[in-house]
Amino acid sequence: MNSMELKYGCNPNQKPARVFMEDGSDLPVTVLNGRPGYINLLDALNGWQLVTELKRATGKPAATSFKHVSPAGAAIGLPLSDVEKKMYWIEEEGELSALACAFARARGADRMSSFGDFIALSDPVDVCTAKIIKHEVSDGIIAPGYDPEALDILKAKKRGSYCILQIDPAYKPAALERKQVFGITFEQGHNNSVIDADLFKNIVTKNKDLPAWAVDDMAISMITLKYTQSNSVCYVKGGQAIGIGAGQQSRIHCTRLAGQKADNWWLRHAPQVLDLPFKEEGLTRNDRDNAIDLYIGDEYEDVLADGKWQKLFTRKPDVFTAEDKKAWIAKNTDVVLGSDAFFPFADNIERAARSGVHYVAEPGGSKRDDLVIAAADAHNMVMAFTGLRLFHH
392 catalytic, yes or no? Predict the structure, then answer.
């Protein structure tokens, strides 16, 4: 089959809508369940490229959680700590496969943004991973295959309408890609840039101590950015994107947005959050996620106000003060920051330092590179110039 009809385009009024292969060949995607939409397929195909590149660069299973053509999270399959299992609501799941760990990390980085996501996985879906996905609000998934029991679990989601796509892992896109805007056809070469350890050899700071795990995290940041709407930056720690700032017109706004997300992820490790006395009955994961987001933000009074906390907690939690949050954030270390284009000003480095960034990967090429390098040196950071811009639109 070389054509697939869709429900509608980006919006319900945009009909008819379909995807098709211009050369008459079969589509590399098979629908196993549900009916994909236009944006679903954009998320699925971008997500698939991201996870296959992550696996190629690191040798580990990879996962991403996509929303509106940008990743909300991305990760490789490293083991989860007990704290992370508690943060991601999977304490009761037992032993986890590497793929399940990758998904839990990708989904857990920014749970607010991942709500209603489209999932991409680098490996065939096993039962362990399917059981975790079962409990999350998600629109669909793309993977190279499914264990029969895992497929049955996923088919039951959304009252049987969950979108399940299987992609041919051998598929390679044409060298040229095209799209239309306002009736005008754009054409460009497919972005075949390879992101691996060699990309990070040009270290421009005084500190040149770049361990192997930081190289992996740099690769994760840059591969994630390759499929994120520009301008974009990505904070990574321990094999997991913890803050992604996408589609901002100013790079410092990207850095601030992603930094805030990284801070929120780290604040969820704090005892004040881990020990929130949630009621055991009547609350969904999403209820708890929303409450935590308010509790660690400036809207904590909305959660702790009289008449509201009783609906969520067995007792009224203490306020997580601004001073306590600042002190906790200061404990975060060894974070990697990647940027899809050069930093034009040193303010990006200063903001990144507040969120524990010690390693930076960016293309370089700004007129103010010397000032950016000096700022990195002032914080004893390790910064690599990649020479590779990764705009994505």
Answer: no
